[in-house]
Amino acid sequence: MDAKYSPVLRLQEEEESEGDQPPPSKPHPARPWRVAVIANLKEADPFSPDAPGDAGAEFDKPETIQAIRDVIESDGHTTVFLQANTNLPNALRDFCPDICFNIAEGQGGDAREAQVPALLEMMSIPYTASRVLANAISLDKTMTKRIWRDCGLLTAPFQELITGREPLQADMNFPLFVKPSREGTGMGTSLKSIVHDELELRRQAAWVIREYKQPALVEEYLSGREFTMGVLGRTDARCYSRRPELYGADGFHRFLVQEIDTSHSATPGVYGLKLKKLDYDVPGSADFIIPARISEVLAQQLQQLAVQAHQAIGALDVSRVDIRLDREGKPRLIEINTLPGMSPGFSDLAVIAERGGLIYRDLILEILYLGASRFGLLAAQENFSIPVRRREMVSVRLPATPLSRQHAHTLHATAPHPRRMLRGKRAGLKS
Ligand SMILES: Nc1ncnc2c1ncn2[C@@H]1O[C@H](COP(=O)(O)OP(=O)(O)OP(=O)(O)O)[C@@H](O)[C@H]1O
Ligand SMILES: [Mg+2]
Of 152, 186, 227, 381, which residue is the least packed, with the fewest Cβ within 10 Å? Predict the structure, then answer.
């Protein structure tokens, strides 16, 4: 292992150094960190000629990177932006970060969102949010649904088509929904994704397989209301949080529920790429209702389902979970985003956080601090020490700071926010 990447050595050096002052926040890192924000920028690198027409829809804009850097620097750290391309290993060696804030979608392959975490693990560099396996699983919607089904979590009946000619399973009832198994930001989803008979099914599946060069995921079409749920925290989040009061007794923050109402939009019943690209208040855009007008019972059900979905695939610290009601009104999981969009004021997670009183700065710093704590870069705050699930405390090469068995007090999530309705969204920004 390269000594310059050892947090143990760094932490010791830091504690001995008299020069630098720690950032003015709690809990205190031993000294300011060098943070590399890693992302794929829109239009930075060319795509191969056979890439799908909407390739790169998930990539970030410079404004998002800058917003994240501004927040991290406002906490006293040094930042740099590194593009997630083949030059990344050299750039990491040059900058020598203490930790990376990872939002990179990756450039291709069957687990592109896991590429940067895999590289960082190979180079023994700490990074934020989910690790390699969870990022690979969450990109693959079929694998994710197999795990959820195995855990007894409700999701629509489904089948993966590799050639597009496989016979349809007996439990698949029309209308069905056909989408690429490994894309995001609505890529490959439109009104044509809803298929009503064999002919439409075969046509759409063949298009997905040809255009995206990956299997088509066929699911029963969930005709009910659609919600998106933020997930932030983990069992021991309060031990390392700058704002421990954000987390409930289970260690997770309670976000407001966002409903996405597409019924008056250009694509009723489908929140696909076309709607995700539309700006606020333009004709044809979706309505975003925060908090959703639903019963407290349903809100709690959705919250619990989102956390269970996050934990089932081993996601860490942050994610966004999409859920729809079936025709009987039962919530069913659609998919999970372990690298949710982070554009301030635009991305769903940032918006629902703000509406519930968790400002963008705190959202970003919580993700940074929770990530840092898993690599031994932060000491646990004694008052909040609680036992953690084994998987959550794993680091690349260090056990997290040992935790005592003392339980923290029960803390309540943020107060409910008055109802707000938003129309439309984001020009080219990631949901
Ligand atoms: N089984 C389904 N039944 C009904 N609608 C569905 C189903 N699966 C997907 N959709 C619709 O298609 C949209 C996009 O699907 P999905 O969330 O899987 O794609 P995505 O590209 O990963 O989205 P994101 O932008 O959240 O990453 C959903 O928000 C929903 O409106
Ligand atoms: Mg989605």
Answer: 152
Q: From the CA of 64, how far away is ligand 2's center (Å)?
A: 20
Range of the domain at 340: 226-423
Residue 291 beta carbon below 6 angstroms from any ligand 1 atom: no
Which secondary structure element, helix H or strand E, spans residue 81, and what is its range?
A: strand 78-83
Cα 428 to Cα 264: distance, rounded to the nearest angstrom? 21
198 occurs within a structural domain: yes
* Pair (94, 49) in one structural domain: yes
With a 6 Å cutoff on the Cβ, whether 158 touches ligand 1 is no
pLDDT tens by residue, 152-200 = 999 999 999 999 999 999 999 999 999 999 998 899 999 999 999 999 9
- Within a 13 Å sphere around the CA of 234, how many CA atoms are in the beta-carbon half? 29
**CB of 331 closer than 6 angstroms to any ligand 1 atom:** no
Q: How many A from CA of 406 to the centre of ligand 2? A: 38
Token couple for 258: 């966002």
Report how far ligand 1's centroid is from the alpha carbon of 271 (Å): 6
Kindly report the CATH number assigned to the domain that includes residue 106.
Answer: 3.40.50.20
31 Cβ contact list (under 8 Å, min separation 6): 14, 17, 20, 21, 22
Name the domain boundary from 130, 165, 191.
130
Residue range 86-110: mean pLDDT, rounded: 96
The answer to whether residue 23 sits within a structural domain is yes
| Per-residue pLDDT tens over the stretch 299-320 | 999 999 999 999 999 999 999 9
Burial of 16 (0-12, 13-18, 19+ CB in 10 A): exposed
Same domain, 230 and 212: no
Looking at 130, 146, 179, the residue that finishes a domain is 130
Ligand closest to CA 224: 1
Which of 22, 308, 66, 322 has its CA nearest to residue 184? 322
Which single residue is written with the structure tokens 């890439």?
A: 51
Q: Which sign, positive or negative, has the C-alpha torsion 290, 300, 238, 121?
A: negative
Whether residues 205 and 264 share a domain: the answer is: no
